[in-house]
Amino acid sequence: MIAQTSGEGLPLVVVHGFAVDHRIMLPLEDMVGERPWQRVYVDLPWAEGAEDTGVATPGELADAVVEEVRALAGDGPFAVLGNSFGAMVARHAAHALRTQCAGLATLAGVFEMDHARRRLPGRQVLRSDDGVLDEAADVRDDFAEMAVLQTPAAFRAFRRHVVPGMRGADQTVLARLGERYAEAPVPEADAPPFDAPSLHVLGRQDHVVGFEDGVALREHYPRGTFAILDGTGHNLHLERPAVVGALVGDWLDRVELSLR
């Protein structure tokens, strides 16, 4: 399940979203920099080269990640960051191991697993560029479907970090888990507030998961920063890396302070 590690220090477990792999999260390297964290990038079972463990539901998958984190961190502290579907997994791990979890972050996180119940903004493209779309060639439709900012930089990030995992994904595993996607756990249900430092970055134009379902849980995270970024969608850390990086840095500052 561990795909890549980098850096030294306490474990920062990084969980990617549905139908992609850990490479979509590698821009985090520039955001963390020289901080005292060992980044542990997880590949979920559909990722290219990952083992299909046979998990049948998102809940089983989330529990498997908890066991991976437990083996990695032992009895010591860790932090966890999840993107999109991975945000559900990260929140589940943070709550299951809450006495050890020093911090939780979500980027464009799924908070409502039932697609039909999500509160979504209308689809918007705030910057279009036919030249960029022409350059996208065989991934034009995939990029255009997701991009709020169709800029050269956003496309380069998409091609580098999203396309390889998307093309290498095991469709059989995705289909199996997708059939029961809405049965994923709701970590906040019947749980006390999560009082470690947290960060939840949401895109104002995110037509995939929206932002309102995440913000609705703000009382559950009394030490949570909730940022709704205008001018970005579901791939917000690729479209707005500077501001997302600043928010991640602030979150890690708060986590490190709480550990002193």
In short:
This protein has helices at 28-32, 58-73, 85-96, 130-136, 140-146, 152-161, 163-168, 171-178, 212-215, 236-239, 241-258; strands at 2-6, 10-15, 37-42, 78-83, 101-107, 198-203, 224-229. It has 260 residues and is of the alpha/beta class.
Based on the model shown, name its key terms:
260 residues, seven-stranded mixed sheet, globular
Note the topology:
Elements: E1 2-6, E2 10-15, H1 28-32, E3 37-42, H2 58-73, E4 78-83, H3 85-96, E5 101-107, H4 130-136, H5 140-146, H6 152-161, H7 163-168, H8 171-178, E6 198-203, H9 212-215, E7 224-229, H10 236-239, H11 241-258
Parallel strand pairs: 2-3, 2-4, 4-5, 5-6, 6-7
Antiparallel strand pairs: 1-3
Helix pairs in contact: 2-3, 4-5
Walk me through what this model shows:
The chain is 37% helix and 16% strand. By secondary structure, the chain is α/β, with parallel strands linked by helices. It has a single domain (2-120, 167-258), classed as 3-Layer(aba) Sandwich (Rossmann fold). α2 (58-73) crosses α3 and α4 (130-136) packs across α5 (140-146). The relative contact order is 0.18.
